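Request:
You are asked to prepare a plain-text protein record giving the amino acid sequence and the backbone structure tokens, at your earliest convenience.
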Amino acid sequence: MTKLDQDGWALASTHLDRTTLDALRTSAFTDGSAGQRCLLDDAAVRQTALDLRRRLIDSDVLPSTAVAIQAIAFDKNPSTNWKVTWHQDLMFPFTCKVKSTDYALPSIKDGIHYARPPREVLEKLLAVRLHLDDCDETNGPLRVASGSHRHGFFKGAEIPSMLQQSKEVACLAKEGEVLLMRPLLLHASSPATTPKHRRVLHFVYHSGNPIAETWHRNI
């Protein structure tokens, strides 16, 4: 069992060049903004999603059938220095309102339909968080509860018990590194103690069988 399978997360290098990183900082982020959703239509983001997919396939992290379904920009900075409580990533974008009964909690965000896929679909998703800045202890790094992804969905009242059983780890990273993470992994972050840019492009890849609904994007 790999570290990613066991712990639900792992760090990896990408070797993306500075020109690519600079282009992403320019196209996917706006000064003073906390970020934006659904960026796979942006040319630079889309190309990076394909480049990362190829690298992860070559490294046997993803199968050759994997597709990118989501890209989100996050920037924790002096203007948007937020806190995120412990949670799982459960809601994903679709082309239209879901009809299958096992796709739960339909909603609309910024005009795009979202829903919670069933557990068997969520377990075939991989988040790939590309760091466009160094992320250290002072700028609100992501914290994860190692191994929690192997226990399915958690109700709010169940989270404290799971945290007691899990090892909490702060995921520090250098510019250009990626954090590989299973969306069912419990994770959180605190406000930065020394606010500065903490820009992250959060890609999600699906590597399972065709699903009953249609992803908002599929590349």
